[in-house]
Design a protein that fits this description.
The structure is a homodimer. Chain A has a 5-stranded mixed sheet with strand order 3-2-1-4-5, sandwiched between helices. The first copy, chain A, is built from 5 helices and 5 strands; from the N terminus they run βββαβαβααα. Chain A has a single domain, classed as Nucleotidyltransferase, domain 5 (2-Layer Sandwich). In chain A, helix 1 crosses helix 2, helix 3 crosses helix 5 and helix 4 crosses helix 5. Chain A is of the alpha/beta class. At the A-B interface, helix 1 and helix 2 of A face helix 1 and helix 2 of B.
Chain lengths: 185, 185
Amino acid sequence: MGSTANDRRVLGIDPGLTRCGVAVVDGAPGRKVSLRFIGVVQTATNLSIEQRLLGLEQGIEEIMAEHNPDVVAVERVFSQHNVRTAMATAQAAAVALLIAARSGIDVAMHTPTEVKAAVTGSGRADKAQVAAMVTRVLALSSAPKPADAADAAAIAICQLWRGAATARLEAARKRSVRERSAAVR
Amino acid sequence: MGSTANDRRVLGIDPGLTRCGVAVVDGAPGRKVSLRFIGVVQTATNLSIEQRLLGLEQGIEEIMAEHNPDVVAVERVFSQHNVRTAMATAQAAAVALLIAARSGIDVAMHTPTEVKAAVTGSGRADKAQVAAMVTRVLALSSAPKPADAADAAAIAICQLWRGAATARLEAARKRSVRERSAAVR
């Protein structure tokens, strides 16, 4: 139970300027996933954009320094209904990506559909279903609040599970290439 | 001629991930504007987004460290035809804003229309007209290349001229408030 030497620690980020969801989970495929930290970094809407970006940077850097993740997983930003919101989300994601790159920490990005599919089995699951699965996987007594925090946890879980699946596929591909090149020789 | 104690030094930024235009100008209203530096920070399109943001951060930080501007003026990003481009532009702008905030340097943002109007007198001027005015104002023998660099110079010139106009309006407003409150007493 709990974290072992094979566990990976993932910082999941649901980017946003007003409330940026952050969750740190430990785990590995087939083993218990445990929650280390969950919350939101908030910046006041009456601050200038550059002060908000700076506040977000400081918040995420503190969490990174405290939890030292192996990977940072960020929700991939797409066009949203509101262009202004999409821009702010893209900028918040940029801050998270920049901090990870500066620290030499691996980055992964997942679309909302990938996250939902990884956590619930369906890419079209609704928010309530995602929150229910996050609550179950992390063995919590109730869903994390606010929704941005629960979403960050879902992204981190997606990375643990999908990242492992991608690594297995990659290993299988390399093995198959080796076998084929052995056959050619 | 040249820079004086009253001149302001502006770093103008035309945000972009592939080519980010940067220009440093010195000047004050009614005086010669002089170009200190002009160029582009480029990041390779085959790098990951986080490595590109990091490369941009390093490039802008070097220019800031070398030229020590009083203000950073960034083109305000709006919806563009291509959502992917708009996101990348917003993220590049976020990097510039973040660096300025971290260094405690004032930030200003201007829309493309404001920049064109400040430099050419018309908010609907085309690229060639803006480049021609930048060339004339900076007393260059030919237009700066690439276009992103010329645009960054236009943003910096806009900040010198508009910033001064805004400061005058602000001073006039304060004076008028003082006069009114003196009249009330």
